[in-house]
Amino acid sequence: MRIAVIGTGYVGLVAGTCFAETGNTVICVDKDESKIKTLLEGELPIYEPGLKEMVQRNVAEDRLQFSTDLPAAVQSSLVCFIAVGTPPDEDGSSDLTHVLAVAEAIGKSMNGYKVIVDKSTVPVGTARKVAGVVGAFTEEPFDVVSNPEFLKEGAAIEDFLKPDRVIVGCDDPRVAEIMKELYAPFVRTGNPILIMDVESAELTKYAANAMLATRISFMNEMAKLCEKVGASVDGIRKGIGLDRRIGPSFLFPGAGYGGSCFPKDIKALLKTAEENDLELHILRTVENVNEAQKCLLVDKLKNHYANDIAGKSIAVWGLSFKPRTDDMREAPAITVIELLLEAGATVRASDPVAMDVAREIFGDRITYHQKNYEALEGTDALLLLTEWNEFRYPDFEQMKAMMKEPVIFDGRNILNRRRLEETGFTYYGIGV
Ligand code: NAD
Q: Tens digits of per-residue pLDDT, 140-154?
């Protein structure tokens, strides 16, 4: 099949590359010329494990191209994916400017029948809006499909090639067949392609993220209670996770959820409910709990230092919102570092891949250290914010020798508390 993927970010680049990997001819389009230039030079504008090799292989086989020429890509394709960003608007609703701009550009470029697929996460009713915009600019026939994406950054290729399920929202069985054909190579082990109406498909994506965020905020509240009553949230996590009705995923308390999806999708869903005269009480609380959670480590740090951290030097390990990605959108590290700076502390940061992104956010307001141990030099505390594997088993003796005060705030509960305390550290975790 000939495919255009418009928007070459975390989702578009992975989707386009994986479709090329199964033999399709794919053109990935972006309006960001520097992104396309980087890709044409054989480099990647983002970090995603395994993606670079896959991109290079498919480019070499002429199955994958990169371009800023949207009309040409649309004209040479049957299926056009819209995978542009849908950031939160000022009022929390999903900003559809990019999606609708692409819809207009597709409408103006049509030269025959097209399947237009909303891959971006968009509120209920967007596929109908896209159809309206495309139809305003063309007489050519087309269908609009909702096909939300569930990949996780850091494991995006695996998720795309082996999805738990594929959701396709469309009204016409013939279009459903085209989508099934496209996804067939990824569901050979029997995972389902669920065909449903467009509105349900659009809402399924938000419901999934809302449920996952709810589990995290629930566990963060449990962790707080554990600290009050002297229980350990880790035991509780394992104890409930083994119940098959609950399952073990997304039960880890921490420094708050972040990323480009959960925060904005929760806000957008709340807004959709509000527009329909409905208050989603659970989700409102999920969001409030998370906002407070992002401040928790700094609160603990202040508490440790009798509410005065002015002049303290603080090491921060982990800047990306989760491991194996350089994505810092809505990362807890942003809130934490801003709070530290506001309180007059200085920050020495380290992250395996997100430092360039962090430089764009903080500039020279903090210092950056390629080696995580170097960030510890002369510090009054370490805040661990992202559970990168390389942070799991550090040399505690070496750390203690480098720090001025051996105090650790483990925002992901990944360090061995007993051994740290034996080494002379004061340890603070989340709910342990
Ligand atoms: P991103 O910001 O990484 O990429 C979006 C790209 O679209 C950018 O490169 C931007 O330049 C491009 N773009 C914007 N307007 C354009 C236009 N008019 N023409 C061509 N290109 C244009 O975003 P992302 O993380 O890939 O997310 C894309 C969508 O997928 C969002 O709706 C997001 O919610 C959803 N999603 C993201 C993830 C994730 O893990 N990142 C997972 C599932 C779903």
A: 999 999 999 999 999
